[in-house]
Amino acid sequence: EFYERKLDSELSNFPKKDLILMFLLLCKGVQKLHSFGYFHSFISIKNIVLNPKNEPILLGLTNCQKIKIGR
After folding, report:
1. What is the pTM of this model?
2. What is the CA radius of gyration of the chain?
3. Distance from the CA of 8 to the CA of which of 46, 47, 57, 67 falls in 20 to 30 A?
């Protein structure tokens, strides 16, 4: 899907409690990514869009890299 609404341009439209909930949803998504052994190397507010339910979507998954443990 294509989302046109970027979080950075919509921040002032939301109360603080909604922004905190969005942050928690993003953390949950990043935790899921980590559980698959990957990390996102460029998390930025410019890489976050909103779906029609105002849920944050982290873009730039091409910036994900496999977590390497050890040498």
Report:
1. 0.81
2. 13
3. 67
